[in-house]
Structures are given as structure tokens and as C-alpha cells.
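chain below, 182 aa
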Amino acid sequence: MTNFIEVYDNALTSEECKVIIDHMNSSNLKPGTAGQYAEVKVDVKESLDLSMNLNDETEIDCMIIDALFKQRNKYVEKVPFLNEIIQWNVCARYNLQKYLPGKGYYKDHCENVGSNARVLAWMFYLNTVTDNGGTYFTDYDLTLNAVEGRCVIWPAFFTHVHRGIVSKTETKYIATGWFQYI
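prediction:
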């Protein structure tokens, strides 16, 4: 049985990743929130986040949406039944996240906590982290490495519990969001 976790390497170019990271590092990043009530809980998640909106159509938004829809189409080709369910599309709100060395999303979680509208989750790794720094899907005993430009798409439900893998020595940058019912 498939795990419905799809990995698309080189979804963003190295140059695009650098532009996004530079944007993050020149922005006012805020402590990341987690859970149903979007609270800062450092025992759950320690990140510096920048909330974004695809409707703003900035250079960053355009890079993300262009790459994301190419990968979304590949995902639907592999899981065509997604065309049969109630209409869904990308959620305009998404997050850019920076995890400093020793920081991460520590707690097992799924992406449907607090929002029953989410269908799929997506994530772009914006840099390669060689000292851990990936994502671990507990039910599949699957570790994905943080590789620059890599896009990962997976179901947003309890079937896909995951957590970050903390790098003690390197900073990890990601862009992440959801597809939801419309």
C-alpha cells in the first residue's frame, strides 16, 4: 500500500530558494505558533515564522505558486480520485519558517488539527541540511531529508502524523502550507 507521501526534487531552483531565504532573513520574523489555537508553545515548536498570502502576488508568492501547482498536478496524476471529491484548492495563507540549530517542530502532529478543511499539506525545503534537519513520518517509519528545492505533498489527516528532525548544528528553512476544501 502506498503511503501517499510524494517527493518532488528540484521543484524550486537553487536561485529561487536563495531569494526566498534572503527575503526571510530581511523580514520581521515572529515566533512560530502551533496547534488548534495557534499559540506559541516552545515545548512543541520553536521556529521563526513569516506568514504569507499567495493573493499578495509578490515575487516570492509567484515562485511558490508556480512550483506548487506543477507538483500538485503530478500528485493528482498519481491519486486521480482527488478529482472526485468536493472541490479543493491551495489555501492562500502559508508560512515561511526558519529553524535555528537545536530548534524544531518537536511534537508529533498532523496538519488537520484545528482545521477540518485541509485536504493535503505541502512543504518546500529551501536549503539542504546535512546534520539531520528533515521530517519524520511516524506511522511509516519514513525520514525525508531536507534537500534544497524539494517539495513534499501528503494527506493532512491523522494518517500522516509527523515531526521535524532537529539539526543541532544547522539552520533549516522551509515554506509550508495546505490545500483545502473550497
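The mean pLDDT is 95. The two ends are 29 Å apart (CA to CA).
thats it, cya
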